[in-house]
Design a protein that fits this description.
DNA-binding, globular, 122 residues, 5 helices, single chain, mainly alpha, two-stranded antiparallel ribbon
DNA sequence: TGGTTGACGTTAA
DNA sequence: GTTAACGCCAACC
């Protein structure tokens, strides 16, 4: 199977620390009992396409509610112990987890874009 | 300096 | 449901 080109949107145009800051801010904005995705967090931080960077920030972790960030479609992307812990943490917050997926319909947090035009998101 | 990796995403088969 | 390919970006080695 071969893909051609989904059409890229934007490139990261900020210093590493700014990126980290923006991402952390977006992550901390997710309230307890709610969850979001890497892609959504990246977009909320104004870094569309930098989903991977979100993962990097989470991994390096500081004091972020990492358990609230999931893969596209509400899927838990972790493996092993971490996955178990994430599931437990989410469950403790009241987030229903089915298998390795979360009921996004009921728990996805809709960001209010920081600076961009406040239109609806995702 | 340069190639590899990864807590990613999307489209396609 | 799964597997494959491609795009993307910074951390790692």
């Amino acid at each position: 199977v071969k893909r051609k080109k989904p059409a890229r949107k934007s490139k990261i145009a900020a210093s590493p620390q700014e990126v980290r800051l923006l991402i952390e801010r977006a992550i901390r904005a997710i309230p307890q009992g709610k969850v979001s995705t890497y892609g959504a967090v990246a977009r909320a931080a104004g870094l569309a396409g930098a989903a991977r960077q979100v993962a990097v920030v989470l991994r390096r972790g500081f004091d972020l509610p990492w358990q609230r960030v999931l893969g596209a479609g509400g899927q838990i992307k972790l493996t092993g112990d971490s996955a178990i812990e994430q599931r437990l943490r989410l469950d403790a917050e009241g987030v229903r987890v089915r298998g390795r997926r979360v009921d996004m319909k009921a728990h996805e947090y809709k960001f209010r874009l920081p600076k961009r035009k406040s239109s609806r998101q995702k």
